[in-house]
Amino acid sequence: MGLLSGKVALITGGSRGIGEALVKAMAAEGADIAFTYHSSEESANRVASEAAQGQQKVMAYKSDAADYAQAEELVKTVMSEFGRIDVLINNAGITKDTLMLRMGEEQWDKVMEVNLKSVFNLTKHALRPMLKQRAGSIINMSSVVGVFGNAGQANYAASKAGIIGFSKSIAKEVGSRGIRCNAVAPGFIETDMTHSLSEEQQKAYIANIPLKRLGTGKDIADTCIYLGSDMSTYVTGQVISVCGGLNT
Ligand code: NAP
Q1: Residue 180: CB partners within 8 Å, gap ≥ 6?
Q2: Which residues line ligand 1 (CB under 6 A)?
Q3: Which of 32, 142, 165, 203 supports an S-S bond with 57, CB 3.0-4.6 Å?
Q4: Do 88 and 180 touch, CB atoms closer than 8 A?
Q5: What is the domain partition of the chain in residue ranges?
Q6: With 0-12 CB in 10 A as exposed, 13-18 as middle and 19+ as buried, what is 135?
Q7: pTM exceeds cut of 0.90
Q8: DSSP string, 98-123
Q9: For residue range 195-219, what is the model confidence (pLDDT) as tens digits?
Q10: Per-residue pLDDT reduced to its tens digit, 12-44
């Protein structure tokens, strides 16, 4: 019996990086998984087949998390194919980094739509079945940058700080119905998102991390397994930093 046996998880952005680690680790803990991607169809199909090693059902769906109507359609499809949603992980995210003076309206709007509006879109639609079940765990992927800011990432940091306020509000709104909502704040995790950093930049970041290494997708997945499982039934409205001590 895994920690997530009998549960259904819906995860946005599961085709790469942290999302891929979430899909694989949660399936290994016994969850059935529906996950989304935006454009990486080949990679999404590979993740789905690699994750479905046991009895678990793992399905990939092309769905733009920033699009309200697509989120509604996705939740309907998942409900008809899986019958319930126990865990929602709003993981999809992008960066469009630049200094404020150079930042265009499009760079601001796009990051807000994919990182923050997506969290509203999916939570709004997944809440209905969770309210009927009188149970559910919503996990929103924030960032340490949403807590302490970062030069060159005003759009990204604002979207990730917004996720924290949203998560705390939802926790207060639906806690009485048995639904929990928490935010996870990763530090620097080895994925496509951080591969653009030069070796020198990586060394500089690592120097400031008490555990002296970048994080892995599995580090984030382990925390999400805890938050999605019955090991955390008295934990809601929290921001859990998984950052090797960077946010200390
Ligand atoms: P990543 O490797 O760039 O992967 C991003 C994932 O999001 C991909 O699966 C991508 O799908 C999906 N995605 C992007 N736009 C989407 C959209 N509009 N609709 C649906 N899916 C979409 O990123 P990551 O590093 O794994 O980051 C995952 C989450 O953790 C993000 O929210 C990120 O902000 C957060 N985070 C990451 C770090 C880090 O150091 N890596 C640190 C703090 C927080 P496609 O493959 O189809 O493009």
Answers
A1: 136, 137, 138, 171, 227, 232, 233, 235, 236
A2: 12-19, 36-40, 43, 64-66, 91-94, 114, 141, 143, 186, 188-189, 191-194
A3: 32
A4: no
A5: 8-240
A6: middle
A7: yes
A8: --GGG--HHHHHHHIIIIIIHHHHHH
A9: 878 889 889 989 999 999 999 999 9
A10: 999 999 999 999 999 999 999 999 999 999 999
